[in-house]
Amino acid sequence: VQLVESGGGLVQAGGSLRLSCTTSGNIFVINALGWYRQAPGKERELVARKTIFGSANYADSVKGRFTISKDNAKNTVYLQMNSLKPEDTGVYYCNAEGAVDYWGKGTLVTVSS
Questions:
Q1: Where does residue 92 rank: exposed (0-12), middle (13-18), buried (19+ CB within 10 A)?
Q2: 90: exposed, middle or buried (Cβ count in 10 Å: 0-12, 13-18, 19+)
Q3: ∠ at Cα 30 (27, 36), nearest 5°?
Q4: pLDDT at 39
């Protein structure tokens, strides 16, 4: 399974970004897709996750601001991020859960105050 993220960039606080993660390869082994982030000096943390059955969960810090969605026809998962805050800054990684975890290389999101 290969994961390629896109959509990161620099945005002012209060702005929006949409991240995309396109999957390829043996995607039938995937049980869930999600987004994690790692801020400078911090551990990687779950941001949002969605199972193949459609259930989603979010980190408390992003509830009401971020939305994870999937386009099965495009094998792509999205993370719509609204009302961004400086503390949302970090490298965002796409994750696919199967028998093992698969990771993308990450895309940098920088939110300026």
A1: buried
A2: buried
A3: 110
A4: 95
DSSP string, 42-61: S--EEEEEEETTS-EEE-GG
Q: Which amino acid is at 42?
A: K
Are residues 105 and 43 in contact, defined by beta-carbon separation less than 8 angstroms?
Answer: no
Q: Are 59 and 35 in contact (CB under 8 A)?
A: no
pLDDT, tens digit, 9 for 90 and up, residues 13-65: 999 999 999 999 988 889 999 999 999 899 999 999 999 999 999 999 999 99
Q: pLDDT of 59-104, one tens digit each?
A: 999 999 999 999 989 999 999 999 999 999 999 999 999 999 999 9
Which residue type, as a one-letter code, is found at position 40?
P
Using left for φ > 0, alpha for ψ between -120 and 50, and beta otherwise, residue 86 falls in: alpha
> CA angle 77-44-60, nearest 5°?
70
